[in-house]
Design goal:
single chain; about 110 residues; mainly alpha; two-stranded antiparallel ribbon; about 65% helix; about 5% strand; globular
Length: about 110
C-alpha cells in the first residue's frame, strides 16, 4: 500500500505542477478511497464514515461518466453514529451505475468512438 500511496501522491504533485487541478482532485479521492478500503477492511464503521467514502466514490464515477448523473447522499443525523460493516453501501451504488445505466454507458461509448 505504501508504494501505491506514494505513487499516487507523486502523480498528484505532477498534476498540481501542471495546473491540472481536476486530475489532482481525482487522485486525492482515489488515494482516500484506497486508504479507507485497505485499512481494517473487515471493520465495523459508523454510517458517517461510510457515507464520506461513498461521496468520494460518487465523485470519481461522475468524472468517469462526465456528470451524466446526479447522486445525492443523505442520511438522518440520528443514524450517523449507527455502525455497519465497512464497504457495505458502495456495491449497491456500483450495481446501480453498472446495471441501471447500461444504456447510457453504451451511448457514451458510441459518442466517444
Amino acid at each position: 500500500p505504501h508504494f501505491l500511496y506514494n505513487t499516487l501522491d507523486a502523480i498528484n504533485w505532477v498534476a498540481i505542477d501542471r495546473k491540472e487541478y481536476s486530475i489532482s482532485k481525482m487522485l486525492t479521492s482515489l488515494a482516500l478511497i484506497l486508504r479507507y478500503s485497505i485499512h481494517k477492511s473487515n471493520e465495523i464503521v459508523e454510517i458517517r464514515d461510510e457515507l464520506e467514502y461513498l461521496k468520494r466514490y460518487v465523485y470519481l464515477q461522475q468524472q468517469r461518466f462526465e456528470y451524466s448523473f446526479i447522486c445525492t447522499v443523505e442520511a438522518d443525523e440520528n443514524l450517523m453514529k449507527c455502525r455497519i460493516h465497512k464497504l457495505l453501501i458502495q456495491p449497491l451504488l456500483e450495481n446501480t451505475l453498472v446495471h441501471g445505466f447500461r444504456e447510457i454507458q453504451v451511448w457514451m461509448r458510441s459518442i466517444s468512438a
